[in-house]
Amino acid sequence: MKHLLVLGGGTAGTMVVNKLRARLAPSEWRITVVDRDDAHHYQAGYLFIPFGDYDRKDVVRRRSRFVPEGVELAFGEIAALDPEVCSVTLADGTALAYDQLIIATGTTPRPDQTPGMLGSEWRRSVHEFYTLDGALALADALTAFEGGRLVAHIAEMPIKCPVAPLELLFLADAKLRERGLRERCELVYVTPLDGAFTTPVASDRLAGMLEARGIAVESDFVVERIDAAAKALVSYDERTVPFDLLVTVPVNMGADFVGPSGLGDELHHVRVDPHTMQSRLYPNVFALGDANDLPISKAGSAVHFSVEVFTENFVDHVQGRHMRRAYDGHVNCFIESGGGKALLLDFNYETQPLPGRYPLPGVGPFALLEESALNHAGKLLFKWAYWHVLLRGRELPLPAFRTRAGHGKQREATP
């Protein structure tokens, strides 16, 4: 019997085992998922915790609830991966051999990578919301915030959900206005990018939204350290951005075991073919979701669309056939803009975000590059879809591929 080993039981790992268990004969394939514990987190929900809209029970479920029958679930820290001998070693010394490997261990905020971030102001005036504990601590800080300089900051790209820091500022702006405190507050967005976002069209649109809300932008800011005593960000070109409350997005890095394996880049994201998610070094190794180095946003929709393509390819691969499908980098994301509205972006490797309607051209119901209450409702509805549909490998009526018309078209992979 052949063994498929999946490292990581998060969004990508859970989705793919649900899909593959139904496609790979149990008499021929053993499937094992490895993760550190039995807690599955809906990470997109962290954004709403600082504003009191969600709490712990909204974003955490038992991981084992979503792993299908016939898939083994093993708990333990991953200590090492040796792709030469097709073996993974856990921290307790357990060795797991595999025939095919899927790495889906995500990417993790690493505040230790920026000098001063974990200093005396950590979880006092310096916060993050990319972990559950961080989001809960920030909720207390924002409740106590009565005025001053609120700074949202990105340490380095790429990060999970690159629009989330913007969403935080839009929601903070709306909440401060609701509390009658906006005139006493200065909001600043600090980014290493040369604009508000990674694609020019979206960057222009989001820059206009920031300007309309009186949110300042400090671009091309590459942080060198955080001066806790002065309560200021300091860049490599010696610019400083003072703050009263800093909400930072630390450097995001892949799993530590990826580095010594030789599979990853300098941030431990696995180097893969951008269309098939296959390792560039080992044909029996794949990386899905935030764990890979795809040149596209690390977003939940990218996981969903890429796994749809990957599943068919993987079945072809293990049956000795050419992988016929090519993921085109399709991503869409709802951007909370405050006041019960949201913006929707839809793009891929080659196509910038365009105006129009999604998912049905001319019909919608969602508006692209426009703020609307319906888009906000779509973002909130996604939580239900995540727990009840996506994680379980069920189909959503959304095209995996992106075209200018908003419809998907299957493309052949480059041999």
How would you describe the overall organization of this protein?
The chain is α/β, with parallel strands linked by helices and 415 residues long. The protein folds into 2 domains: 2-109 and 253-318, 3-Layer(bba) Sandwich (FAD/NAD(P)-binding domain), CATH 3.50.50.60; 110-252, FAD/NAD(P)-binding domain (3-Layer(bba) Sandwich). 23% of the residues lie in helices and 26% in strands. It is built from 8 helices and 24 strands. The strands form 8 sheets. A 5-stranded parallel sheet has the order 5-2-1-9-20, covered by helices on one side. A hairpin with a 4-residue loop joins strand 15 and strand 16 (232-235). Helix 1 packs parallel to helix 7. The longest helix has 19 residues, at 300-318. It is globular, with a radius of gyration of 21 Å. The protein starts with a strand and ends in a 25-residue tail after the last helix. The relative contact order is 0.14.
Number of helices: 8
CATH architecture of the largest domain: 3-Layer(bba) Sandwich
- Shape assignment: globular
Helix coverage percent: 10-25%
- Please compute the radius of gyration using only Cα atoms: 21 Å
Widest sheet: strand ordering: 5-2-1-9-20
CATH class of the largest domain: Alpha Beta
- Average pLDDT score: 93
Layout of strands and helices, then pairs:
Elements: E1 2-7, H1 11-21, E2 29-35, E3 39-41, H2 56-59, E4 60-62, E5 71-75, E6 78-82, E7 87-90, E8 95-97, E9 100-103, E10 108-110, E11 126-127, H3 132-144, E12 148-154, H4 164-178, E13 185-190, H5 200-212, E14 216-218, E15 223-227, E16 232-235, E17 240-242, E18 245-249, E19 251-253, H6 258-261, E20 285-287, H7 300-318, E21 331-338, E22 341-347, E23 356-360, E24 364-368, H8 373-390
Parallel strand pairs: 1-2, 1-9, 2-5, 9-20, 11-18, 12-13, 12-18, 13-14
Antiparallel strand pairs: 3-4, 6-7, 7-8, 10-19, 15-16, 16-17, 21-22, 23-24
